[in-house]
Every structure is written in C-alpha cells, then in structure tokens.
Amino acid sequence: MPAPRTVLLTGAAGGLGSLMQNLLPAFGHELRLLDLRPIDGEPDAIAADLADKDAVREAVRGVDAIIHLAGISLEAPFEKILDANIVGTYNLYEAAREEGIRRIVFASSNHAVGFTPRPQGDTPVDPDALIPIDTPHRPDTFYGLSKAFGEDLAQFYWDKHGIETVSVRIGSCFPEPTSVRMLSVWMSPADGARLFHAALTAEGVGHTVVYGSSANTRLWWDLTTARSLGYEPQDDSEPYAEKLIAEHGELDPENVAHAYLGGHFVSDPPIWPY
C-alpha cells in the first residue's frame, strides 16, 4: 500500500499525539491535526469534539487514512468513557465509511487485556510463554473496556464495510520508561512512529491486532503480528533497568498490581482529571 498522502491525527495535542506530530512527517505523511481544544502553534489544526458528527465528517473529508488517538486515556466514570471513547470512536468510523476512507490505525491499549496474568520466570521470557495476540479480552477498567469495544468495532467495520484497521495495543509510549513494569511494555517514541507508519502502509491488513512496544529484553507479549506489518523495532528498555530496579525493586508476583498485565490499573487505576 502506498504511503498515505494525508493522515488525520486525532488527539493530536495529547502526550502520544504530540510525539507523533513531530515524528511521522519524516515518513512522508502529511498530518491533519484534530483535538478537542486548539493546539498552540498549529493555527490550521481542527478543534472539534468527536461527539459532533458533522464536525467529524468534515475533519475526515479528503484524507487518505486516520490515526485515532483521541479520547480519555485513564479511568473515568462510565458515562464519560461512553461519550469520549465509545460514541466518539463510532462517529469516527461512520464518518470514514461515509467518506470512503479505507484505513484506520486505532490506538487500543494493553488495558483491553489488563487482567491477563503477566508471564513469570526468567528474563527474557520464554517465547512460548509470551502473551499471544489472540488472548481474550479481559479489560481492567472502563477505559480498557472501551478499547476492547474499539477493537470489536474495527472488526465489524472490516467485515461489514471493508474498512481496514490496525488496532495497536499500546504499552507505554514515553521518552523513557519510568517504572519496572514499564521495562516490559515500553514503546519508544521512535518505535511508535515506526509502528504507526507500518500500520498505515502495510498491504491487506483487514483487521489486524498488534501489541505496541519496543524490542524490550523483558518483553511480555508476542510482537509477531506487529512484525508482519513490516515493523522493525530498534529500541530496548534494558539500559534503564538497573536504575529503575535499584529505585523500586523487582516486581512482586504477590502484589496484584504486579501480577497482571494491566499493572496498577487492575487495583488503583489513575483517574482522568477533567
């Protein structure tokens, strides 16, 4: 699939969106930015709420693909999750269908399967013990539930309407890992851009679900489907391991927040502040 000429980036002012704003153009993508609020320094960015169907359809008109990062990224009351993450994602897919857009990259999350027990034992994890991509949905929060919905919505729009989606179960995309758990699920910003580019340009993806992380020594999940898109991660969290373990100690399998893939989302999830 040729590289899309214009890509709508929703949630462009968020943490991940801000990183991708700067990194994706180097891959040849022209970005159209959308967020709920105006974006400083980007006078052409679209300020729109995904609850506004007319605004969403106008925003997607004429683009070649969509990277959908917008929405609530922490736990919140179900009513807020419903409006922002479930209805908003539905509105985006409907607008894409109406405008004939055939490729979406959906920011799913490891929290769609957050109650999956993490691998135990040696580092690196035995390849046969890595969490497979077809592990059943086990959301750890209403937030994770919304991401499971998004994956199912993407499958429906592929089966029903032929819109292709790569659903990326993102781990933690920050300039560097900040916790011992993150050593296993970290995705460097540079690898994030590589993965999104591969998801935009791979041929014949149908609906493909992938885990989103770097090639971490302490990796917990299987990157086979991500690599099948042409993704070649270049980074590893291991250079940060000694410092983080010295500060926080090794993960304790008796601690519920350490025992499951979703980390503290399963026990004491961070709450959306807005």
Structural commentary:
- There is one protein chain.
- By secondary structure, this protein is α/β, with parallel strands linked by helices.
- It is built from nine helices and seven strands.
- The chain has helices spanning 15-23, 53-60, 78-99, 142-161, 182-185, 189-201, 224-228, 241-248, 256-259, and strands spanning 6-10, 30-35, 46-47, 65-68, 103-109, 164-170, 207-212.
- Strands 3-2-1-4-5-6-7 form a seven-stranded parallel beta sheet, with helices on both faces.
- The longest helix has 22 residues, at 78-99.
- It starts with 5 loop residues before the first strand and ends in a 15-residue tail after the last helix.
- The mean pLDDT is 97.
- How many helices does DSSP assign? 9
Span of the ends, CA to CA: 39 Å
User: Order of strands across the biggest sheet?
Assistant: 3-2-1-4-5-6-7
Please compute the radius of gyration using only Cα atoms.
Answer: 18 Å
Low-confidence stretches: none
Give the averaged pLDDT, no decimals: 97
Q: Overall 3D geometry?
A: globular
Structural class: alpha/beta
* Helical fraction: 25-40%
Strand and helix order: EHEEHEHEHEHHEHHH
List how many beta strands DSSP finds: 7
How would you characterize the largest beta sheet? 7 strands, parallel
The amount of beta strand, in percent, is 5-15%
